[in-house]
Hints:
- By secondary structure, the chain is α/β, with parallel strands linked by helices.
- It has 2 domains: 2-155 and 295-309, Rossmann fold; 157-290, no CATH class.
- The protein is built from 8 helices and 14 strands.
- Helix 2 (41-54) runs parallel beside helix 3.
Amino acid sequence: MNLVINIHVVDDTNVGDLFSSPLKYFEFPRSRTTNIDIRHLDQKLEKIGQQLQDGSLGDYDRLCFIVGGGGLLFPRFVKKFVALQQFKTQYQDQIPIQLITWGVGQQIYRTDPDRQCYYQNFDYSEYLQGFDLIGIRDFEHPNPDYHWVPCVSCMSNQFDKPRSIEHEFVVFSHKKFQIKLGNFPYMTNNTHDFSQVLDFLGSGDTILTSSYHGVYWGTLLGRKVLAFPFSSKFYTLKHPAVNFAIDRWQASRREVKVFGKQLYDFGYSKDFSCNTTGWRDALVGSEPYSQLLQTYRDRSQWYYQQVASRLS
Length: 312
């Protein structure tokens, strides 16, 4: 029996993070599986280390940490990856330990539409040293030992549901990077209802979105997508959307006005907005991708076999 621990962001208010876990879509042979929120990884590793020392963890043949999916390769989480590497070094004499990534990706909070090369020079090595199998969702990367593997959410059977187009445009915003465009149907990623999100995205002929998963899922649904990027991850997709050129995102000001007169000013919020002038022009000539879903599922199945072979 193996112990398989999936590490990702477990957040009921971010549907993309919540449904990027491979444990939702695949069974792992001869294994007990569980999740850890990467934000609480240090405490969990300390507890597992204590259990290994006192023999209370259980009788397992091996311990496997699967990190991903999601945009976990950014400075906030560097120490989490290092902690996993150190854990393996410390305890691998007591139990065989596998470190695996599945569908993780880079996250640099810049747009710089005229200087996109910054994402191509991303240093993956500081995160991934000591990992036994590396699958990343970023299509272009410098290391031949890294495998491209898309976000595993493509395996959901919710994509098999037929959906009819009801609106010319729908807007799907990231909850912190919000776009306001006319009176189009509007939704944010602040939800845990995956089926509802796909129904919403599928109802639009064109999806206007500041969400990575809004781009990804909309593409898999065969819709046209216009992305409003806030980080490097929007430029790393194998089949990218049309990316609207944004100079910068600005923090939104929290204030109360009556008849144009400011009554209260609460300063800046944690939400951001951007100038969307000219967004229609960016869509001229754009076409949806077609029949990508099975290709992405085939690649995910292939990667699952790579992982499963390490647990047999």
